[in-house]
Design brief:
Helix content is 25%, strand content 0%. The relative contact order is 0.09.
């Protein structure tokens, strides 16, 4: 019996999904994923700081070539 068959038929003690595919959230509708990761709006306690990699003033590589 294959591992997939074992998971599909009998489940697993290590997974609450028992071999099924998890649902994928619709991040297009999420304002938290749309704005918080870039600018911290809305301000949420206990959440990580927004990304600093995508700034409002991007630095272009071609404008900063090595010497």
């Amino acid at each position: 019996m294959s591992l997939l068959n074992k998971l599909t038929n009998g489940g697993s003690t290590l997974s609450n999904l028992n071999g099924t595919t998890p649902s994928t959230p619709d991040f297009q509708q999420s304002k938290l994923h749309d704005t918080y990761s870039l600018n911290g709006i809305p301000g949420l306690n206990g959440k990580p700081a927004p990304s600093t990699l995508d700034s409002a003033d991007p630095v272009k590589y071609l404008d900063n070539l090595p010497q």
